[in-house]
Specification:
The chain is α+β, with helices and mostly antiparallel strands. Helices cover 40% and strands 17% of the residues.
């Protein structure tokens, strides 16, 4: 292989973003078959594993850089080496920390152990929460895709006109949004797609073609409370009217 070809293969390697958990599982039960959606469809390949009857191996739950939490997989050290992944230093740091925690747990009080277990359970619940689509905020197809998007797009799928949706994940900031295939998201989160389409087709919500979004009107200060706010017994105070004017002025810029 030429130097250029080797560099291209290395650039296509996945990168470990973080190691989330560790287990002893069935040998070889790693990779794509251990994503949350694959296990929901076909079952956990290590689900009925019995360490007393068959060979097992230490496996780590890997969150991949540029991929949402639903694409996390269980991997062994061998499978990571075979894939020539980047970021193996994070695995070494995780193993070192696990060993330190193990030694610490052997010395502390039962209350400390209980507190640690509660923290671990909370972290596991948060990781599950990060796999829930909270909101769909955009759609694209391979033909309409624009270059230079700041959000991760999963380019390993074959080119097709199947829509991809930009998903906001529960408990994560908008900077963690990612593009996901319709076939994958619609299985559990069709209601989010429906809500997105409903917002886009709404006659009462501003659209990208709305004139006022392209050219903002000139700011005119409100001298008194507008009729569409409050009522007979609900009147804005002076400082509230001033705040309303500030909001309107900022929007008109």
């Amino acid at each position: 292989m030429t130097g250029e070809g080797a560099e291209e293969q290395q650039d296509n390697s996945e990168t470990i973003e973080k190691v989330m958990d560790v287990r002893v599982g069935r040998k070889g039960a790693t990779g794509a078959s251990t994503t949350v959606y694959a296990m929901e469809a076909s079952g956990d390949p290590s689900g009925d594993f019995d360490p007393e009857k068959e060979e097992g191996e230490v496996q780590y739950l890997i969150k991949w850089k540029g991929w949402s939490y639903i694409h996390s997989t269980w991997e062994s050290e061998d499978s990571l080496q075979q894939q020539k992944v980047k970021g193996l230093k994070k695995l070494e740091n995780f193993k070192k920390k696990e060993e330190e925690v193990k030694q610490w747990l052997a010395k502390v009080t039962p209350e400390d152990v209980e507190y640690y277990n509660c923290q671990q359970e909370l972290a596991a619940e948060l990781n599950k929460q990060y796999q829930i689509v909270e909101r769909v905020i955009a759609v694209k197809t391979s033909k309409s895709a624009t270059a230079g998007s700041e959000f991760p797009a999963h380019s390993r799928k074959s080119s097709s006109n199947e829509p991809e949706y930009l998903c906001k994940w529960m408990g994560l900031p908008y900077s963690e949004c990612s593009w996901e295939d319709e076939a994958l998201i619609s299985k559990k989160f069709q209601h989010c797609i429906d809500s997105f389409n409903s917002r886009n087709n709404s006659k009462t919500m501003p659209t990208r073609d709305c004139k006022v979004l392209k050219q903002r009107p000139r700011f005119v200060a409100l001298k008194k409370q507008p009729s569409y706010i409050g009522g007979e017994n609900l009147e804005l105070r002076d400082y509230q009217l001033e705040g309303l004017n500030w909001l309107a002025h900022s929007w008109c810029k």
